[in-house]
């Protein structure tokens, strides 16, 4: 089988990978739940390529993201639920319906302000139609939080859930109160550690993360951006450890934890004067 610009070739390759006996053992073991994390990861890779302005990488990452769509569609087809063509039909129908000012059968123009209102109205109609297709017990209760999209990254969704709840006064009034909650959650994790209960530890860790997002919201920090910044800081400081050891002809495996801690603090100390100088410059 050879590469092709035709989407049908990608669909054929995916089908071959999922064919029992002759297909790929790893691909055959996968299901919607096991592939979902890769789908999210590929979406982040696309966003990263855009942030870096790397169009060559963006081309590759978009291909990886497209593969995820084809993968899920193939698994659905195997269950006689829907196929890739149905996915394409659904999105084209949605785009045409949401842009009557572009694809209308009759001549007519909509003012820019009207385009947005029409888009929102049509989206609301589609949401109502989806709700009507669900079982009655799934639509019996309309929560204030129902409008918070489920597909967002967990940190972002936690932020949005908290913001929505805050609109009716369900919120902390002081960041220090949130800090107290964080200490409470940390104490609960410590107690769970004593009990050596893995499920409880996972649950309590989630509670701590949720409280940390709450603190970020109250101090005006974006938790996703804050964590990305910390990730970058961790990478810089760890790279310093590697460079210093390499200059001495040593590897990470040769170093003790105490040595690595010392080099970490060295990197941290080198960053602090630069941060202080930047802060002074900002005040000017």
Summarize the structure.
75% of the residues lie in helices and 0% in strands.
Give a written overview of the molecule.
Keywords: Hydrolase. It catalyses: ATP + H2O = AMP + diphosphate + H(+). It comes from Bradyrhizobium australiense. By secondary structure, the chain is an all-alpha fold. It folds into three domains: about 5-100, MazG-like (Helix Hairpins), CATH 1.10.287.1080; about 150-220, MazG-like (Helix Hairpins, Orthogonal Bundle), CATH 1.10.287.1080; about 225-284. It is about 75% helix and about 0% strand. It contains 13 helices and no strands. It has helices spanning about 5-15, 25-30, 30-50, 55-80, 85-100, 100-105, 110-135, 135-140, 155-165, 175-195, 200-220, 225-245, 255-284. The N and C termini lie far apart (about 65 Å). The mean pLDDT is about 85.
